[in-house]
């Protein structure tokens, strides 16, 4: 068995897709078990190549896999806690970044400023396992009975600092509706009130609010067939990358160089105002780098990616 640790969220799993597939290719006859939260199950199925999902949320509980894995792979972090969690399963071999505090001196050195996709590809490459950083595509989900061709706005984020102000999302929803977009608002159950507030301010009906009403598989189906996705730096943005759905992603305070879509894909446009000096953030509301992003900038980025989609469609035809 090959045991892979990635006990994190949606975006974390999608950025690890090239590494997971590289491990599948390197060990084609071995069972591949992924230690990740059970709620990611629908998305794990869309990644492909994973034989078993081991419910693991965070690093505070042991990973229960039965017999010792032949190889354990730390795609979770730099250690030492994640290293020790995997070492406790008594693997024949541990593939991980070097960390003497985690009793693991093998492996490459960690780099803080590395893109998350490149990080795990480089780790595997160090151990002689080639990984293709461009292999980010996800399987098409089964139809979920949702409308196709909609524009998905995702105003929430687990990290409040990474949220674009709700009133600007509302203004964006109004502007896009006036342009002929059918706007739907997504989010978790905890973000339903936020999405409802945006919908009300935008003049949209309650049927436009899908936050808290979709599981991960349904959300993936919605994004896969969407016209456009606009969100902050959160999981739905990575789903748009995985399906090649046109997207505008609003970054701050974390730079897109670490979590953004591949820069060579013009269907995905990144906006970031993080460079330069900013006032000290008081910890309330959006981070200043998010608040600095203007509505007209976002609308211009939407127009740009839509033009790219039209041109690429005309060329394909």
Write the layout of secondary structure elements.
Elements (H helix, E strand, L loop, with lengths): L1 E4 L4 H6 L1 H10 L5 E5 L4 H7 L4 E4 L15 E4 L6 H7 L5 E3 L20 H11 L24 E4 L11 H13 L4 E3 L6 H11 L13 H9 L3 E5 L2 H9 L3 E5 L4 H4 L8 E5 L15 H4 L3 H22 L1
Parallel strand pairs: 1-2, 1-4, 2-3, 4-5, 6-7, 6-8, 8-9, 9-10
Would you mind describing this structure in some detail?
There is one protein chain. This protein has about 325 residues and is α/β, with parallel strands linked by helices. It is about 35% helix and about 15% strand. The N and C termini lie far apart (about 45 Å).
Order of helices and strands: EHHEHEEHEHEHEHHEHEHEHH
- The strand order across the widest sheet is 3-2-1-4-5
> What gyration radius follows from the Cα positions, in whole Å?
20 Å
- In terms of DSSP E residues, the strand content is 5-15%
| Assembly of the depicted chains | single chain
Distance between the termini: 46 Å
Briefly note the structural class of the backbone: alpha/beta
Number of strands: 10
Mean pLDDT: 93
Main beta sheet strand tally, sense and closure: 5 strands, parallel
Query: How would the global form be characterised?
Result: globular
Counted by DSSP, the helix tally is 12
The poorly predicted ranges are none
């Amino acid at each position: 068995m090959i045991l892979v640790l990635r006990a994190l969220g949606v975006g974390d799993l999608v950025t690890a897709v090239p590494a997971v597939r590289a491990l599948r290719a390197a060990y084609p006859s071995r069972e591949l078990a992924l230690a990740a939260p059970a709620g990611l199950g629908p998305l794990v199925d869309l990644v492909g190549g994973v034989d078993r999902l081991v419910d693991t949320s965070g690093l505070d509980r042991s990973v229960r896999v039965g017999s010792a894995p032949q190889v354990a792979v730390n795609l979770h972090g730099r250690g030492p806690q994640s290293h020790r969690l995997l070492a406790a399963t008594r693997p024949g071999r541990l593939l991980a970044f070097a960390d003497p505090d985690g009793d693991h001196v093998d492996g490459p050195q960690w780099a803080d400023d590395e893109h998350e996709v490149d990080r795990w590809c480089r780790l595997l490459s160090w151990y002689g396992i080639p990984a293709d950083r461009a292999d980010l595509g996800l399987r098409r989900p089964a139809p979920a009975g949702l409308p196709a061709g909609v524009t998905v706005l995702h105003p929430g984020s687990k990290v409040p600092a990474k949220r674009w102000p709700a009133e600007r999302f509302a203004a964006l929803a109004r502007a896009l509706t006036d342009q002929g977009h059918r706007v739907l608002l997504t989010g978790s159950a905890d973000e339903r009130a936020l999405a409802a507030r945006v919908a009300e301010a935008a003049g949209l009906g309650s049927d436009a609010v899908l936050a808290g009403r979709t599981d991960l598989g349904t959300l993936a189906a919605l994004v896969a067939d969407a016209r456009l996705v606009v969100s902050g730096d959160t999981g739905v943005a990575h789903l748009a990358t995985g399906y090649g759905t046109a997207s505008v992603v609003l970054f701050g305070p974390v730079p897109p160089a670490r979590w953004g879509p591949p820069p060579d894909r013009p269907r995905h446009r990144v906006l970031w105002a993080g460079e330069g000096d900013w006032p000290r953030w008081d910890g309330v509301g959006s981070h200043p780098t998010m608040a600095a992003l203007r509505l007209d900038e976002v609308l211009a980025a939407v127009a740009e990616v839509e033009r790219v989609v039209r041109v690429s469609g005309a060329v394909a035809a």
